[in-house]
Amino acid sequence: MAISGERRIDPIEEQVSRRNTILRELAANISSYHILKLRLSGYVYVGDHKLPGWSGELPFYAFECQKHGVVVNYPTGYEERLECPFCSEEENA
Known about the structure:
Blueprint: H1 11-28, H2 32-41, E1 43-49, E2 58-65, E3 69-73, H3 85-92
Antiparallel strand pairs: 1-2, 2-3
């Protein structure tokens, strides 16, 4: 039971917040070499990672979003597109 005035934390909201924090940390820790490769090819592999609630790892790539700058995410969909996770979240809100 929540105390009056206290906001309940939605488990899904908390998981999304942790995911965003991890993705921001990955983007912030990209090496100069990876930035150069990203500028030349449009994207660069930054390693396999496992997000909270996942049972396994997926390959993650850094790429440039026109709105959010350099971001990190995994390929999605059958076409394995690289989509900005923050733009996708804004569209779904």
